[in-house]
Amino acid sequence: ARNNQVNxxxxxxxxxxxxxxxxxxxxEDGPYSTxxxxxxxxxxxxxxxxxxxxxxxxxxxxxxxxxxxNLGIGAANMVAEHSRLVAHDVPDPLDILTSPETAxxxxxxxxxxxxxxxxxxxxxxxxxxxxxxxxxYVTRMMPENMIVSGVELAKTAAQKGLTLNSAEAQQFMIKxxxxxxxxxx
Length: 185
Known about the structure:
The protein is an all-alpha fold. It has helices spanning 8-16, 35-51, 61-71, 73-86, 93-98, 109-122, 128-138, 143-160, 167-175, 177-184. The longest helix is centred in the last third of the chain and has 18 residues, at 143-160.
């Protein structure tokens, strides 16, 4: 799942709860947790994280209910609890956008993507400088995350009319221009 960029909160919750996935046929009508449902819930969670500029890592009730439509209420609550547990390791988006050289970069691959997605969702409240600062943060991530996040940031900046002109951003654009071109199509 991580190799396919499935949201880390879903993956982490599944890994840390042995009862996350249903192990048999459900005994009542309604959603229950399957790998396919987890991927669909992860897409909902990605959208939420990117569209919520002030998200603090705690999932609101309505989002847990949305996840429950694909996972069932038990697994959705596991995701919400996992989110509360890991939120302390993921830096605040404001820290990333204002102090990219010192903001915490989590050791966990998925938590790096979580930090990036939260900061990316906050970009609309800031100027071009924040987008360039986010690129500085991206360069501190694990290589595979740096590439995925850098391409996503370039695409988002173009869509939002933000100018990426920092040295890090320019070097990335030159080095990975073929990937950015593929995403733009």
